[in-house]
Amino acid sequence: MIVSKISERVYMIDTLALGRTGSVAAYVLKGSKVALVDCGYATSGGTVLEGLRELGIGPSEVDYIIPTHVHLDHAGSAGDLIKQMPRATVIAQERGIPHLIDPTRLIQSATSVFGEETINAYGRPVGIDKERIVAVGEELHLELGGLSLTALHSPGHAPHQISIFVEEEKVLIAADAVGIVYPAVPIIMPTTPPPSLNPSELGRTTERLAQLDARTLLAPHFGVRTDVVEVLEATRKKTDEWVAKVRGLKSAGSTLDEVAAALKKGVALEAGIREQDFPIYADVSITASAMGILHYLEKNP
Ligand SMILES: [Zn+2]
After folding, report:
1. pLDDT score at 276
2. Running DSSP on this structure, what letter comes out for residue 189?
3. Which residues make up the environment of ion ligand 1, defined by Cβ < 5 Å?
4. pLDDT, mean of residues 263-280
5. Does 3.40.50.720 match the CATH number of domain 3-299?
6. How far is the CA of 148 from the centre of ligand 1 (A)?
7. Could you tell me the residue ranges of all domains in the chain?
8. How close is the Cα of 158 to the center of ligand 1, in Å?
9. Per-residue pLDDT at 281
10. 161: CA distance to ligand 1 center in Å?
11. In the predicted model, is pLDDT for residue 50 greater than 90?
């Protein structure tokens, strides 16, 4: 079973990223219309379709695909899926839309961060016809019939990110505006990859989301939390701590590898797990976060 029920109208699909459970989630909102929020890597499209099938939803019954932002683990399979979903519209933040239409630069940027071999495993997104995309500026409301969604611009992790608040269920799908809460690494870890991290915008986003009165937080990495405000607050605080720590290491002349090792050591200590027991996706995420903070500090010394 790759589908978990959150409520009668909200479901999670484990996209089994790179064949692993518990790292990248997609969410399904089921009113009289159906919305898919995030869709995993390009290589996870088949798993997403399988999850929808488990829910009795065929590809032609999906009305909206909502990638919260254009990073490959959130929007990677959108281009493939939309071709199989004749009535679906893509909803995305306006700053991300050029990358959804033509992902060439996005793929180049991700390859420079993760390397060719990892990108082969993630898969490369294909472009989406611009007629099938509706832009979100600061806010967009959407009625699914029995469910009302608000897409909220949520910059910080990336400038092209939205979060989704489901009014009737008081559910917040926060995208990477919340840190990583992998079941296998039971602490909150910032996710701060390059190239467009902005820690102060992330802080403002978490404060704004904390005011929504959400009862349930659905994290992309990974799963359900009911301590909504605490997770948002910890994300802001820990991101600031990591930025301060990396600033210190950078000014002492540490290399990327040394910065990543120091962050990983801190996470291992706090989570009470041995570094050699880290899941590979946590390792990759910490290295990308170290790169993102170093890149931010280059631009903002
Ligand atoms: Zn992301």
Report:
1. 84
2. B
3. 71, 176
4. 89
5. no
6. 25
7. 3-299
8. 7
9. 83
10. 8
11. yes
